[in-house]
Structure formats: structure tokens, C-alpha cells
TrEMBL record:
<protein>
    <submittedName>
        <fullName>SDR family NAD(P)-dependent oxidoreductase</fullName>
    </submittedName>
</protein>
<dbReference type="InterPro" id="IPR050259">
    <property type="entry name" value="SDR"/>
</dbReference>
<dbReference type="Pfam" id="PF00106">
    <property type="entry name" value="adh_short"/>
</dbReference>
<dbReference type="InterPro" id="IPR020904">
    <property type="entry name" value="Sc_DH/Rdtase_CS"/>
</dbReference>
<dbReference type="InterPro" id="IPR036291">
    <property type="entry name" value="NAD(P)-bd_dom_sf"/>
</dbReference>
<dbReference type="InterPro" id="IPR002347">
    <property type="entry name" value="SDR_fam"/>
</dbReference>
<comment type="similarity">
    <text>Belongs to the short-chain dehydrogenases/reductases (SDR) family.</text>
</comment>
<feature type="domain" description="Ketoreductase">
    <location>
        <begin position="4"/>
        <end position="180"/>
    </location>
</feature>
<dbReference type="InterPro" id="IPR057326">
    <property type="entry name" value="KR_dom"/>
</dbReference>
Length: 252
């Protein structure tokens, strides 16, 4: 049998790139999906093993998703797993939060997950595949000034639970992982804002993220990737509809 095929959205950097490395090392053929072919290509060339591909996809566009899944299937055959990783964060006081930002949070972080699952389902039914959604601890608890992102990520967990029940008779497992603050551009961007707007030092800005984690550190992308790797292949099929917190004990 050919190596199994997985599509990862937002696979060019951060947690998505770490997941791509872990799955490629585990023998998967990886399709990296995202907005910039150049950025995806530069990650693809670093992956271990052969047979990896890239497809252009904006998860905020239904047409783009339809095209990208068709391209991935034509190039690499049916999918055995889908990892919905692409995401963006915008924060701010709810009273002044722009409707356009609210809609972007829902479009990218929630509706994109629904549309990608829909586009993958014909394949996953054929392969009895797996879906892993990258949610967040913001799907398990609230954070001040993060209402839109948190609403979208809570939505991802509700969607995961319901889809898991819908697909259980077909033998398709659907799970979510919920990282706490993880060492990627999202947190580095947040630190830059805190340093800029509040005049904090880099160490103080970092601490405002690490203090949420009982281990007093950021989660590493490879720690998230390891759980996704397990859910994609080795987790017992009976594990479905779960939301696994990867947060040093912040959520339990
Ligand atoms: P990064 O900012 O490093 O990466 C985000 C990825 O999503 C990039 O590949 C980006 O592509 C892609 N992306 C954003 N918007 C779109 C879009 N419209 N279409 C396609 N791809 C898009 O963040 P992380 O690696 O940290 O985040 C990955 C996931 O993990 C997200 O869902 C995030 O919400 C979640 N998460 C992150 C945490 C953290 O603390 N870092 C904590 C909990 C959850 P591009 O390069 O084109 O911008």
C-alpha cells in the first residue's frame, strides 16, 4: 500500500510545520495547504521522506477550499487524514471589536474547519480516515479580550464532538487538540504588542504568557505535533470526540 496521505492546513510554519515534520517522519505523504505557495514550498523541501506536495488554499474561501482538495486528490490520491490547523488571532475589548474582525475570527478558525471537513469526507469515508482539529485552551476556558477567537475555538470543540458522533458508525475518528500558549509567531506577535504598547521588557512580555501555564513556560510546537501524530495513526479508533489539552496543566 502507498504511504497514507494527510492534508495539513496552514502547514508552512509554527504548529502546522511541526505537525508536518512529525507525520512525514512517521511515513505519511504530506500535502501542505496554505495561502503562499512559496512559503509552503520552503517548508516542504525540509520534510523527511518523499512524495510531499503543496496546494494553494485560503481557508476563508469556500471556492479555494474546493479547488485545493480537488488538486490534492488528483496529485496524491485520497486522503487518510485531515489536520485543520490554520488559524489567526485578533484580540481587543469587545465593546470596540470590529465586526470585520469578529467575522474573520469565525471564517478562518471555525467555518474553515467545517468546509475542509466537508471537502475531505468522501475520501475519509473510503479510507476510514481521521480528522484532527487544532483548537486551543481558548476552546476550554475564557481569556479576557479574546472573545471572538475563544467563541470560534469553542465552536471547533462543539463541531468536533457532533461530527465525531455523526461519523462514528463510519469508523472515522474526529478529535481536537487544545494547546496552551505555544512558542510560535502568534505568541511572539502578542509579546511584541505588549512590549510596544505597555513598554514591558521581552522577559516581562514572555512572562505574561508563561504565567498561565503551571510549568511556567510556553508549550513547544513539537509537543502538539506528537499528540496529533498519535491521533492520526496510533490512537485506538475508539478515541473520538475528545479535546486533549496540551497546556502544562493549565486546563484539567
Ligand atoms: P502561526 O501564526 O505560526 O501559523 C498560522 C498558520 O495558519 C500559518 O501557516 C498561516 O498561513 C495559516 N493561516 C492563517 N490564515 C489562513 C487562511 N486564511 N488560509 C490558510 N492558512 C491560513 O500560528 P500557530 O502555529 O501558533 O497556530 C496554528 C494553530 O494553532 C491555529 O489554529 C491557532 O489558533 C492554534 N493555537 C495556537 C496557539 C499558540 O499559542 N501559538 C495556542 C492554541 C492554539 P500564512 O503563513 O499564510 O499566514
Amino acid at each position: 500500500m502507498n504511504a497514507p496521505h494527510v492534508l495539513i492546513t496552514g502547514g508552512n510554519r509554527g504548529i502546522g510545520a511541526a505537525i508536518a515534520h512529525a507525520l512525514a517522519a512517521d511515513g505519511w505523504r504530506v500535502t501542505l495547504a496554505g495561502r503562499s505557495i512559496e512559503a509552503l514550498e520552503s517548508t516542504r523541501t525540509t520534510l523527511p521522506g518523499d512524495g510531499h506536495a503543496v496546494v494553494q488554499m485560503d481557508v476563508a474561501s469556500a471556492d479555494s477550499i474546493t479547488r485545493a482538495f480537488a488538486d490534492a486528490r488528483t496529485a496524491q490520491g485520497p486522503l487518510h487524514a485531515l489536520v485543520n490547523n490554520a488559524g489567526v488571532v485578533e484580540t481587543g475589548p469587545t465593546q470596540r471589536f470590529a465586526l470585520a474582525s469578529w467575522e474573520r475570527m469565525l471564517d478562518v478558525n471555525l467555518t474553515g474547519v467545517f468546509l475542509c471537513c466537508q471537502a475531505a469526507l468522501a475520501d475519509l469515508r473510503e479510507t476510514q480516515g481521521r480528522i484532527v482539529n487544532i483548537a486551543s485552551t481558548a476552546a476550554q476556558k475564557g481569556y479576557a479580550f479574546t472573545a471572538a477567537y475563544s467563541a470560534a475555538k469553542h465552536g471547533v470543540v462543539g463541531f468536533t464532538r457532533s461530527l465525531a458522533l455523526e461519523l462514528a458508525p463510519a469508523g472515522i475518528a474526529v478529535n481536537a487538540v487544545c494547546p496552551g500558549y505555544t512558542d510560535t509567531d502568534i505568541v511572539r506577535g502578542g509579546m511584541a504588542q505588549i512590549m510596544d504598547k505597555k513598554g514591558k521588557s521581552e522577559a516581562e512580555a514572555l512572562q505574561s504568557f508563561t504565567q498561565a501555564n503551571p510549568m511556567q513556560r510556553l508549550v513547544r510546537p513539537d509537543e502538539v505535533a506528537e499528540v496529533v501524530r498519535w491521533l492520526c495513526r496510533q490512537a485506538p479508533a475508539a478515541i473520538t470526540g475528545q479535546s486533549i489539552s496540551i497546556s502544562g496543566g493549565e486546563v484539567m
